[in-house]
Amino acid sequence: MSHSSKQNDCDYEHAPDNHSHEPINDDAAYWAQKTQTIQMLLEKKGYFTADEVRREIERQDSVTPMLGARLVARAWTAPAFKARLLADGKAACRELDIDTVEIKRLAVVENTPSVHHIVVCTLCSCYPRAILGYHPPSWYKSTAYRNRVVVDPRGVLEEEFGTVISDGVEVRVMDSTADTRYLVIPVRPRGTEGWSEESLISLINRDSMIGVSFTRSPRRGSSEGYTSNAIS
Amino acid sequence: MKEVPPKDYHLQILHNPKDTSVIAPVDPATEKDVDFFEKQIISIHRLLLGKGYLPSLDAIRRAAEEADGMFATNQFSTDIPQFLRGRQPEYGERRVLAVEEVFRELGFVTREELQQKPEDVIATDSPTVQRHDPEIPYKPKTKEMADSEPSFAMGDWVQVAAQTKPGHVRVPAYLLGKTGEIIGFSGMFLNPEDVAHFRKQVTRLPLYLVEFDFETVWQAACPKRCVGDKITAEIYGPWLSPVSG
């Protein structure tokens, strides 16, 4: 079909070319095409290659909350490491070969029987991506979470996440407004004394490292493993 | 390159303390997968950050707030198609719009080039694209903060400025005018308000960790169960003034 026949409803009528243009009326296709155009323009101009973009996507996909879980399990089992992690998060990450080069400052905060930390970014979606994954959960990015958790964190945790913080525990909401990214060390579950780091890792879910949940619970009567119905 | 002053439709991040909307879904099993285009755009700007073409994400955050304002006030540029104009852009979409704007400002691409389809970019006879060795376009001068500016120590009580200022800021609206305690010094960082608008001169500022009581922040609206709880935020020195504890 011709370009001119669609000119009235085509938003690309100013595009400087001679090709025909179907108007795109599908949101997903529109954004996919737009992004592909940006990438290809920058490739052609020498900013990067398609291979670099592909490898970067793969690298980001390879970063999962498992990295955070390794840090937490090591902190639970090695008090000297925990002290270093709390003192300088980035340096402690280097010990475990975790690359945090893009995090300017990593603050690790410890939940205890008397203090419970919760992380939010009320200004955008700041998140320790290099440790918990490049894509924060959609609820973390939502305006509902960002609006509500700084007003009534106990209500949000109980009503939305099923996490009840006892009255005697102080809640500290960490709003990531600038250059520090936060990682929460959750409370180590009871009944895990003597567990290996590897077994402990299986209990450490992403949301417990953001502070909206506790860890998974160890399976009763079992040496190492977790209950399937625990919050994850 | 030119500085990019705040636009009249720039919309700073709002905070609605009366929001009661449901936060969903919170079950990891039903979380929505991230669209490929969102992974792609985030990878693109991370690559450019790593190579030094982008100084930081501050300009992208600023441009995302401009997109918010554009959609909130219906001041669309011609390249926003009709079918997108009836709703606020979602997270990844907003990011694409912001990246486009910043890449145009930095001279990486033109508005006309961005209106091409991918297959047009591939075309060898494309009039607009040629490979060259791109230069880093934004190289600001760094300025140290004046000695006359106040500095703070652990335990000092401070008040956040009551009024915001135009453009991109990193102080949440709900903390404006509130009093808190300095509990940490995060270091010296380039002022994101300067970098976000590509100012020629960028000041290096002290960044403090400030702790606020829920009761102080929300006063009568503080839920009873949150009395005694704390909010901490990082705030740059010039936004703070000393108060007697």
Report on this model:
The complex is a heterodimer of chains A (232) and B (245). With 232 residues, chain A is of the alpha/beta class. Chain A has two domains: 4-61, no CATH class; 64-210, Nitrile hydratase alpha /Thiocyanate hydrolase gamma (Nitrile Hydratase, Chain A), CATH 3.90.330. Chain A has helices at residues 27-44, 50-62, 66-77, 79-87, 89-95, 129-132, 138-141, 143-148, 153-161, 197-201, 206-210, and strands at 105-110, 115-120, 170-175, 180-185. In chain A, helix 4 crosses helix 5. The longest helix of chain A has 18 residues, at 27-44. Chain A starts with 26 loop residues before the first helix and ends in a 22-residue tail after the last helix. By secondary structure, chain B is an alpha+beta fold. Chain B has two domains: 1-138, no CATH class; 141-243, SH3 type barrels. Chain B is built from seven helices and six strands. In chain B, strands 1, 2, 3, 4, 5 and 6 form a six-stranded mixed beta sheet that branches. In chain B, helix 2 packs across helix 3 (91-105). The longest helix of chain B has 16 residues, at 36-51. Chain B is globular, with a radius of gyration of 21 Å. The mean pLDDT of chain B is 92.
The helical percent of chain B reads 25-40%
Looking at CATH, the homologous superfamily of the largest domain in chain A is: Nitrile hydratase alpha /Thiocyanate hydrolase gamma
Q: Enumerate the strands of the largest sheet of chain A in spatial order, edge to edge or round the barrel.
A: 1-4
Number of strands of chain B: 6
Number of helices of chain A: 11
Radius of gyration of chain B: 21 Å
- Uncertain runs of chain B: none
Helix/strand structural class of chain A: alpha/beta
Please identify the structural class of chain B as seen in this structure.
alpha+beta
Largest interface: A-B, 84 and 97 residues
Arithmetic mean of pLDDT of chain A: 88
Q: Span between N and C termini of chain B? A: 46 Å
| Assembly annotation | heterodimer
Largest sheet of chain B: 6 strands, mixed
Shape of chain B: globular
If classified by CATH, what would the architecture of the largest domain in chain A be?
Answer: Alpha-Beta Complex
Count of distinct structural domains of chain B: 2
Supply the CATH class of the largest domain in chain A.
Alpha Beta
